[in-house]
Amino acid sequence: MRVPSVVAGLLLLRAALAPPLLGQSGQIPYEAFTLPNGLRVLYSEDHSTPIVSVDVWYNTGSRNERPGRSGFAHLFEHMMFEGSAHVKKGEQFQLISRAGGSENGSTAEDRTNYYETVPSNRLNLALWLEADRMRSLAITDENFHNQRETVKEERRLRVDNQPYSPAFIDGMTWPFDSAACFAYAHTVIGSMDDLNAAQLSDVRAFFDTYYAPNNATLVVVGDFRPLELRRYVNQYFSEIPRHAEPPPVRCTARLAPGVQRREVTDVHANLPAVLRIYRAPPHADPDTRALELLNVILGQGESSRLNVAVVRREKAALGTQVIVNPFDSRRGPGVLLVLAIANQGVDPLKLDTLVTAQLDSIRATGVTDEELTKAKNTFRAGFVHSRETTLGKAEELHHYDMFHPSLAEINSDLERVLAVTAADVRRVAAKYLDPANAVVIVVKPAAAGGAQ
Q: Which of the listed residues 291, 404, 436, 451 has the most CB atoms within 10 Å of its CB?
């Protein structure tokens, strides 16, 4: 699982300049077909280099978990590397490495992915490995207990013992009511209590429910021949049986229910911090494009509003960060997070006042043409950069297939973002940065002054 590194992210943002304007590019041609068992396949040829990426997304993430069993999606990400009917424990990494490739996986709220990038003459190996674990994952008591302890240690290392991370990770869930929207009211990594309570039978049931061809999409991008790809996919995947359709995810949430305030003590923090979390719309909402540009204007780069006003001019913060949905996009309600870590001697309430003043300024008077142009240039640079590799293109195909109304938007979305006006940015700022839409968290160091 990718856990956002709060402090490292701040340092990177402070060091980075807005990327330069890039020309129009990044188009991704694609084709699609579906096997009788429900497996959806997307592919895109790219013969520029002799490599190929195989990328499987399962339509399951933490939002599919139930109360008392949080962390299962992430636990399964680990379990998927523990062997299958024809692959020994640990052999998956060895086979891909010996072939000159790389592989990994990640978990988010809405999806879990597994991917390999290999020399194009080993496409069959990557596809065979994915099919074998989809069909026959080794769900043994030994593997389960081993990986449960690994996940618990990951939580200790990346969340519990990192400054500001508990407030950041847990805070993303606080805008949502666990009774009406459990899907987004608990963390991706799960709680220690739920991990300790997990049983092998629960794990097997999760696999049977969500790890099926009719609940997955396979994307292949790179140097291959389509007829060869179809032959491999049919050979390896076609006989994997379809499972019953998973239960639907239910979530009821609303904007601006009233400001919520919390104060937390962080034993690993040396400086106070303020975290403002605003409810955001599902990714498919038309407001998302303007929100993404607002995100850049507020918190990305040396010239961002918060960096100029709060870090450089007022010298009130060590750093600031603004991010929408840190793990990945969502089909359900999302979050926009604004984080500021106070400089030595700065009261966190004063810091919050300075941050809020910048948010209210955009709500009241909008953004300048220069800010909007710079944000579009930054967005376009990132948009094109994300499509420079075979794996990047595969992830983009998955993203548009899952989170957008139509996969075809993969080649037209940039134009819509570049068409956003200053009035659009001001409108979404007024709507989503409403104080009544916020959860405000003040993080204070422990009395001893933080971890030594």
A: 291
